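hiii so um. not sure if this is the right channel but i have a protein structure encoded as tokens and i wanna go backwards to a sequence. like what aa goes where. can anyone help
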């Protein structure tokens, strides 16, 4: 079988030089419909904004009881077709029979609409709900009884208006927005049509009932992903979509075509979870209570989930919780997911942009939280090689000792054709005296050595805090540290990450000491503390103390109690702690007696 075709570059659509396309001329009779009394029970309309919406003579006949699935494109909610569909549906059980499908990208193009992208499912969902309910520019969409907003092939936001509005999120817990497309490195035109077709088919199988619209949306996402993988078949001009692979949801043969390694598993409806989105009552602040799906899913069973993670390393409910995985980095904590996602996006845009000045970011966390580990995983995931990553611990140096040598090393890596990423660990030591030495490199990309100015070139400077565990705690000192140029330093940062690590938030806020259950002791790749210490020694970084074997004397019940502690209301901390106990059990050297004690 020949290799499938995929989209290499999208250049848009082109119409006739003048006039309207012949297919939109009613006299051409290219489009014919049955008599009104024979109008179908289900009507699917794909309005691409190419003029069809302005020719009423071509509109399909709809009875009051007809179910209409209307896929709209920008400009939204305009034209005679929208008025016709909205008016017809309003006379049928308050619009119960109208399902509107729209891409989130069409909403984001509106300057009056503010919806984030790729930070966390919770943030995007709350912002969508707030915008649809409260933004006057989306008033017509907000009145739709059944509205589906599609976010690539990874998520669908469903909103039911009416006396008791309800919002639901269908999402892939293991990927972010655009994650599947990035993973497969595939692009096709028409995947939203595949989504809509599978959605319509599932609704039709349910005899038009819409109470389980989220299940139909899952089928739509599966079809959209299958089309991305299947591509097109045949040779020009007879290129076709392999419908048998896209829409036969029980057939797994598609995963035997071409490069199967890109998928890392089957794509079925089980790949997606769904959750009800809490109501938003404020447009400026759509997420005042900082909603977390992790908290929603584990609210009444948190102790059982923690115990299962310690004993078995898994719990079914965690399959329905968002998880960010980048290389060996794994986190289910929303705050960490958003921080890592934002910095990953920032680094990717820098690498693929043309900015010639250095990119400066900061990372904060308690000792052992995994600050350098997390950033390195992000860097390597977007193409920065291990050889281009360096580190220098400033707490071990004199006032200016070694700093210029680090700048020269950064410069040399850049001259070799790579974009270097360099860590300055404990940059906030020595009463912030280091900060003023970084201002010129951060702002102008230059440094002075023995009276000669050198240009750093494109590079990423990462400042890892040693005394401040959060950016907020670091920034609080601006007024008292003006002489050290703290406000100027902060103004040059493009982003920051707060890494909570295994410590509870209250201890992280207080600057807790190293913990026996540290993320650096045994990381997700199974690397022991001794391995990490050796690597740190090679890079010149300071080696921290490691956990002793006394940590393994605990039983699972004691480990769960430790995981819960006084932080039962902080699900992110509970899950981090339980996962790390499990990692310590499985990866660290143990006697048979200890392993038996830990798993019994």
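sure thing!! here u go:
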């Amino acid at each position: 079988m020949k290799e499938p075709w995929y989209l290499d570059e999208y250049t848009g659509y082109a119409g006739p030089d003048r006039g309207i396309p012949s297919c939109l001329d009613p006299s051409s009779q290219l489009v014919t419909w049955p008599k009104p009394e024979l109008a179908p029970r289900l009507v699917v309309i794909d309005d691409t904004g190419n003029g069809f919406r302005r020719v009423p003579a071509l509109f399909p006949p709809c009875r009051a009881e007809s179910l209409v699935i209307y896929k709209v494109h920008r400009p939204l909610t305009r034209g005679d077709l929208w008025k016709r569909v909205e008016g017809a549906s309003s006379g049928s059980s308050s619009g119960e029979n109208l399902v509107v499908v729209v891409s989130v990208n069409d909403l984001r193009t509106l300057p009056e609409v503010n919806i984030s992208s790729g930070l966390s499912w919770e943030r995007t969902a709350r912002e969508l709900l707030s915008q649809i309910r409260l933004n006057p520019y989306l008033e017509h969409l907000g009145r739709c009884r059944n509205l589906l907003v599609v976010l690539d092939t990874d998520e669908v936001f469903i909103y039911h208006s009416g006396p008791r509005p309800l919002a639901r999120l269908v999402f892939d817990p293991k990927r972010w927005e655009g994650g599947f497309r990035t993973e497969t490195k595939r692009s096709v035109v028409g995947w939203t049509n595949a989504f809509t077709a599978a959605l319509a088919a599932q609704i039709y199988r349910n005899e038009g009932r819409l109470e389980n619209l989220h299940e139909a949306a899952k089928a739509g996402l599966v079809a959209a992903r299958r089309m991305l993988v299947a591509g097109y078949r045949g040779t020009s001009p007879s290129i076709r979509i392999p419908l048998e692979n896209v829409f036969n949801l029980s057939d797994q043969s598609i995963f035997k075509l071409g490069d199967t390694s890109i998928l890392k598993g089957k794509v079925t409806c089980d790949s997606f979870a769904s959750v009800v989105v809490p109501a938003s009552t404020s447009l400026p602040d759509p997420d005042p209570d900082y909603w977390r799906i992790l908290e929603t899913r584990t609210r009444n069973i948190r102790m059982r989930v923690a115990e299962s993670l310690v004993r078995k390393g898994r719990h079914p409910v965690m399959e329905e919780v968002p998880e960010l995985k980048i290389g060996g980095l794994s986190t289910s904590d929303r705050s960490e997911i958003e921080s890592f996602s934002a910095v990953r996006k920032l680094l990717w845009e820098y690498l693929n942009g043309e900015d010639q000045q250095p990119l400066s970011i900061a990372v904060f966390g308690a000792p052992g939280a995994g600050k350098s580990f997390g950033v390195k995983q992000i860097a390597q995931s977007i193409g920065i090689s291990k050889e281009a990553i360096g580190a220098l611990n400033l707490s071990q140096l004199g006032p200016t000792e070694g700093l210029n040598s680090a700048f020269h090393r950064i410069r040399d890596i850049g001259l070799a054709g790579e974009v270097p990423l360099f860590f300055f660990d404990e940059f906030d030591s020595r009463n912030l005296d280091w900060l003023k030495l970084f201002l010129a490199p951060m702002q102008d990309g230059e440094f002075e050595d023995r009276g000669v100015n050198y240009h750093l070139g494109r590079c990423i400077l990462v400042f890892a805090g040693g005394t401040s565990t959060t950016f907020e705690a670091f920034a609080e000192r601006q007024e008292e540290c003006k002489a050290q140029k703290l406000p100027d330093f902060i103004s040059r940062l493009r982003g920051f990450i707060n890494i909570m690590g295994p410590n509870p938030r209250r201890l992280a806020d207080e600057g807790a000491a190293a913990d026996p259950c540290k993320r650096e002791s045994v990381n997700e790749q199974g690397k022991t503390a001794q391995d990490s210490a050796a690597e740190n020694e090679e890079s010149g970084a300071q080696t921290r103390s490691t956990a002793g074997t006394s940590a393994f004397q605990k039983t699972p019940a004691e480990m769960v109690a430790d995981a819960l502690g006084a932080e039962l209301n902080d699900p992110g901390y509970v899950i981090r702690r339980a996962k790390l106990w499990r990692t310590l059990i499985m990866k660290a050297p143990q006697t048979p007696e200890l392993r038996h004690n830990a798993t019994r």
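oh and The radius of gyration is 28 Å.
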